[in-house]
Write a structure and sequence with these properties.
- By secondary structure, the protein is mostly helical.
- The chain contains 5 helices and no strands.
Length: 124
């Protein structure tokens, strides 16, 4: 399937979702027990995962999937939001923004894999 017709929509939607993610992470940092904010962050990560997977951007899909896993642990009250979790979620945001900028410039996510961020997510 030719996905080029969807590229502009993917880019614009991703920008909106990343802006929302940033705003909600800033709010979560201030109010770590705010479940509606956490649910919104989860929704944004889930949406980005689906969009990037559909477009064939596996690095973004993997990163957002691993974000979802951590967020689900918080939602299930297995872990609590702390500064380490907020920091790594901001690192995820930076990585997603980097991937999007590469996609805008080259059509590809680029070479970075952000293994350190993914490893941190997977050890939380």
């Amino acid at each position: 399937m030719d996905m080029s017709q969807y590229m502009e929509l993917f880019i614009e939607e991703s920008k909106v979702h990343l802006q929302s993610l940033n705003q909600n992470l800033l709010e979560l940092e201030k109010r770590p027990d705010n479940m509606p904010i956490l649910n919104e962050i989860f929704r944004v990560a889930h949406t980005l995962k689906g969009m990037s997977g559909t477009m064939g951007y596996s690095k973004m899909a993997t990163l957002t999937h691993d974000m979802e896993n951590v967020l689900q642990k918080i939602r299930n009250r297995k872990i609590k939001v702390n500064s380490e979790i907020v920091d790594v979620l901001f690192q995820c945001l930076d990585a997603l923004e980097d991937y999007l900028q590469n996609i805008i410039k080259t059509g590809s996510e680029g070479e970075k894999t952000y293994d350190d961020v993914i490893n941190t997510l997977n050890t939380i």
